[in-house]
Design a protein that fits this description.
Number of strands: 0
Number of domains: 1
Shape: elongated
Strand content: under 5%
Mean pLDDT: 93
Structural class: mainly alpha
Number of helices: 4
Radius of gyration: 15 Å
Amino acid sequence: MPDLLYQLPLWFNLATGAAMLVLGLLKFKPHNWMAISLAVTELLLLIQLVTTIVLVSQGQQAATDTVEFFAYVITALLIPPAAVFWALIERNSRWSTVVLAVAALSIAVMLVRMHQLWTGNFS
């Protein structure tokens, strides 16, 4: 997995997740940019999925467990649509903003784990 496909979504999700968490705790309702940021995250995860499928088809493997790596990628792909759906249902609540923040921060944690699985570097 190219390092850019790890670093870019990681820092993007940490920044947007932290911003959404602060806004949610300050009782702000969700804004369009929050859903758009999760759409960007979804796009980055799809790019990562396609890239790693190509890498695996060329003979590369995750350093630890390739199946577990793909399980993380697929699970991470499910989080943004689920969070946006939940936020739309609760759109008049500040907690919907917190749900979006937790989704972004959860994906950041999953990206760190995916990087660990792919590289074998657990430090």
